[in-house]
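anyone seen this seq b4? input:
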Amino acid sequence: MSKRHLLSLAVCLASLPALAVEQGEYQINGFGTVGVTHMGGESDLDYGMQGQTTDGWRGDQLSKLAVQLRYGITDTLSVTGQLGPKPTQDSWEVGPGNLYLAWQANDNLTLRGGRLGTPVYMYSETLNVGFSYPWLRLPEEVYSLVQVASHDGGDVLYNRSTDIGTLSFQVAGGQAIKRDYYAVDDTHDFDYRDVFATSLALSTDNFGTFRVGYAEADLQTTIESDIQRAPGLPITPNYALSTYDGQKGKFTSFGHQYDNGTWLSAAEAVKLSVENNEEAATNAFYIMGGRRFGDYLGHVTYGQLDEPSGRQVSMTYGLNYSITPTVTLKGEYKRVDTSQGDESIGVFKANGQQTYNNGVYQKTNGAAGVPLGTHDADIFSVGVDFIF
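predicted toks r here
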């Protein structure tokens, strides 16, 4: 089986009910990653979506496992569930992933309800299936911006063949209440209410897949931390560093993928904003190119994150080796730099005290507090992705 067909199989295993099951039949599949990562050159701050990249070799960011069961209740109605361990900040959780009913109304239309993946990113459908993309670490400049990966509700999937390719449309709605949100070196409850997400993709034979997406939700949380306002003063518990009280977050994305079996590329550009605060919008993008040489794949990725506080840029160099048709060994080196302002830290993670001290520094024009400064690091990652 070719690599392109195996990647298509990985997509099917991950989420969409593309592999139909008849009444009384079931399918058991799975996917996972065993990997470690290490950061050099940065001693003050951690890095990554949950701050798990440090100056030690750690496997609790990349490693994950999921087993998926699909059962046919009738010839058109099926139930799908996932179960497995996954890392959450500095610990591991074992529990269910997506769990939903799917009704295939006809060859083109499917309706689903339950806990579903939210179509935020181009790779949201296979977010945890490392085998389906070339990296060990998805480009954090883009993939660190929205932490919610699933919602409770429903969606509609529609596919149609045309003269220029296959059109795929998805619209989803629901909510995600009390989800873990990592900030200031801790996990907080975050509510995403009135979630709405939609995407449109065109898959062509010769020019790859083009995708546009939009998602929004009403945000509710308070980011708190114990801080010391000044040396010698007592600790202030549960000091509110940031609060969202129903403001609408909006996320727009444009993406493209191409893979002809030898050459491949991927690019994604996104914008994240909060209603009534457009001047604080965040823009990010990445562009990747790669080539296969037999069982080897070399790839290079440039990523950029632009926030009001400054810019992060990165270069990632990766080399993959297909051990078997369903197992891939991956190695990556990533160089990360931040610039344009003492408060610009990109995807590096500051704790509550560091965040507070930096805020005081900015408000007093440097008369008090401590700036976060600019940061750079060398990140090494190695691991194995597999499907079964």
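The first strand starts at residue 26 and ends at 40. Residues 288 and 301 are 4 Å apart (CA to CA). kinda curious what u guys think
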